[in-house]
DNA sequence: CCTACGTTGTTTGAGGTCAAATAAAATGGA
DNA sequence: TCCATTTTATTTGACCTCAAACAACGTAGG
């Protein structure tokens, strides 16, 4: 396929044509656009190489990885570390259990909590797959020096910190007192009888 | 919420504990991990601020954006520019049409092609939403200087180029002659009668 | 013509995605 | 002991996701 993307220059010109007078923050636009494009490209490469041979999706791999590294863990923390919602984790954990890679046990002291851990088969899989995964991490960043990879990680981390520390505040500010629109999708309230 | 993530240092230690002797490329691991984390954080912020008020998902916004900037376009090119598969585009375009934001016409000369364009309502929506979107791009990169944003865009672009130019070759190499496993999900062949 | 073959958009199926609603359990007062 | 509140995981519903199969159309060679 090798990229049919428009060049950044072309895009900039087209945006200016569309928005003539309105001022645009170009550097920031380029940064955000490329974060998403890179994440998608990388994810796709992994899903079609290492992960395909292990029959894992990116998300199921991440969940497995978190539990593999940290050991038995409460589900809320797994979701947090994996960067997915707890609702998503419920489903992902279910498919991993069905494949015999993960186990779910109730918390002995607190009945609300659930604990996840890997089965021996899950452990074996991760011991095999993780080195291959890391080799692909090296592949996709092949064009960067070690220092550049660290710079990249640092710049991205600063964005994550910004969103996580100031994001909520910002979102409230933008609403300016108004009620947030409900999400288009999602569960509806049980309509009151009467 | 403000991040319950483990520090990178903690993670590194846990990984070493798990893989003692196996050598790991740490810088590359950090870079890839942060690309994905940043992409997810940014996407979520956008979906819960600008996009929520316009009732758009990230993907539907990107599709709208592409057609807005470039004008009437063949669907294959829209999918390409938006970075989604043509199958996904079919669905997204359908919901955008249903909302009256987009139109679909057949190609006058080639019956296989379909063209997408914005309705006047779609145009109005984008003219309103895009400046707000760009303001959030500025917000999430607030911790970076203009030059750092450009550096970031450049580093990410080099990863995209690497994956797009060498990815396929690499995936074939990894298979080493073997047939790729079919994806776990996806359409099954109609089973032959007999 | 016709018949491969190539190219395009759509369908399919398994699965991931979120926020909000909900259920189940714990906690802390009165 | 209740009962309201808080905290947790699950369910729900609309949507996105991909690759592979497929159908519809175009094209080039006989």
From TrEMBL, chains A, B:
| Region called Disordered, residue ranges | 173-194
The processes (GO biological process) annotated in the record are:
response to stress
Q: Which InterPro entries match?
A: HTH_MarR-typ, MarR/SlyA-like, WH-like_DNA-bd_sf, WH_DNA-bd_sf
A UniProt-annotated Pfam family: MarR
Gene3D superfamilies recorded: Winged helix-like DNA-binding domain superfamily/Winged helix DNA-binding domain
Q: Where is the HTH marR-type domain?
A: 28-161
Q: Which domain of life is it from?
A: Bacteria
Q: What is this protein called?
A: MarR family transcriptional regulator
From what organism does this protein derive?
Streptomyces inhibens
């Amino acid at each position: 396929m090798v990229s049919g993307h428009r060049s950044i220059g072309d895009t900039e010109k087209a945006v200016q044509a569309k928005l003539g007078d309105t001022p645009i923050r170009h550097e920031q636009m380029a940064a955000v656009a490329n974060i998403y494009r890179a994440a998608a490209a990388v994810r796709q490469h992994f899903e079609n190489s290492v992960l395909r041979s292990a029959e894992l999706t990116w998300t199921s791999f991440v969940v497995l990885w978190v539990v593999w590294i940290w050991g038995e863990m409460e589900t809320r923390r797994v979701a947090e570390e994996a960067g997915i919602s707890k609702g998503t984790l419920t489903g992902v954990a279910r498919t991993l259990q069905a494949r015999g890679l993960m186990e779910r046990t109730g918390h002995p002291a607190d009945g609300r909590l659930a604990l996840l851990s890997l089965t021996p088969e899950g452990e074996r899989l991760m011991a095999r797959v993780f080195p291959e995964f890391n080799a692909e991490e090296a592949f996709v960043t092949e064009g960067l020096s070690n220092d550049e990879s660290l710079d990249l990680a640092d710049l991205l981390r600063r964005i994550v910190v910004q969103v996580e520390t100031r994001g909520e505040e910002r979102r409230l500010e933008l609403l300016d007192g108004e009620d947030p629109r409900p999400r288009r999708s999602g569960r509806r309230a049980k309509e009151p009888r009467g």
